Amino acid sequence: MQAGIVSYGAYVPRYRITPSEIGRVWGADGAGMGASLNVHRKSVPAPDEDTITISTEALRVALARGAIDPQQIGAIYVGSESHPYAVKPTATVVAQAVGATPYLTAADFEFACKAGTAAIQTCLGLVGAEMIRYGVAIGSDTSQGAPGDALEYSASAGGAAFVIGRERVIAKVMRTQSYTTDTPDFWRREGQRYPSHGGRFTGEPAYFRHVTECARRTMEMCGTEPKDYRHVVFHQPNGKFPQRVGKQLGFNDEQMRYGLVTPYIGNTYSGASMIGLANVLDHAGPGERILVVGYGSGAGSDAFDMETTDELARLDRTTGRPVQEYLDHGVELPYAVYAKFRGKIHMGED
């Protein structure tokens, strides 16, 4: 049987801050910045939330929805660029927390914002080769943005987990394709607190080139056109880039509707396209074709052509919070509390 998604779950911290509030502190036009990015507010992790806790919460939902025995998991890979430890895997803690240890392989993935999609590809290979029964791919981040920098208006926190298998598949992966080059648009050296970015260089030669080339190659190999897809999900560093690239490729607003989540929770980095896919699966019915195109700085894109099955209607999607609730709700913070939360996280305090 063809490998694909068996179950999924997402988690986004409850706190929010608006661009207007950030701009107020720095004497900048925060509302204008938010409008230019198409980001209305972003999620903020509490002091006791990090990539490990976000990944664990998302995976617990996925396991409960699919009624999956954690002891049947053969691999857990966590993709992130904000792992809590430089030398201590996130994946082992997550595996232990959900009861999947000890007979499995686990590792942390890092490729800027596409580490989670790279983990999906790895799980597809292991499951497809029948080396394991279930593989878990997680994309999760508590992303960083220097105070006052443009990134601060969008960098947020959240993640999604996908269980890959061959039984009771809710979304078959028909094909996956990648496009990779050495394009240094965004980077952070070991020991640096915040990342650096190439400004406008992050657009045309980086994001747009990789996403469009990867999407076009995937559709060419599948013999499909934009009109063949019910849903499309792009990596979304802000709310404007995915809308623009979607129009360039020939997709309409209705196809992008559920996959676009950044305007309401900010850019969750490794979790961005994966939370978008989770929201699509929350709303999709059987027999709907989906195109997902992730992106990671440095740079590369991973694309997936998939189609939902009748099993999706049988999945208990009422278990856990749907992504839409995270988009619609949250507790707004003043900048002082936001700064306190972020400061405690960076200092590693309890």
Sequence-ordered SSE layout with sheet pairings:
Layout: E1 4-11, E2 15-17, H1 19-26, H2 30-37, E3 42-44, H3 51-66, E4 73-79, H4 90-98, E5 105-109, H5 115-128, E6 134-142, E7 157-165, E8 171-180, E9 186-187, E10 196-197, H6 203-222, E11 231-234, H7 240-249, H8 253-256, H9 262-265, H10 272-283, E12 289-293, E13 300-308, H11 311-314, H12 323-328, E14 331-332, H13 335-347
General description of the model:
This protein has 350 residues and is of the alpha/beta class. It folds into 2 domains: 4-170 and 318-347, Thiolase/Chalcone synthase (Peroxisomal Thiolase, Chain A, domain 1), CATH 3.40.47.10; 172-311, Peroxisomal Thiolase, Chain A, domain 1. It has 13 helices and 14 strands. The strands form 3 sheets. A 9-stranded mixed sheet has the order 5-4-6-7-1-8-13-12-11, with helices on both faces. The longest helix is centred in the middle third of the chain and has 20 residues, at 203-222.
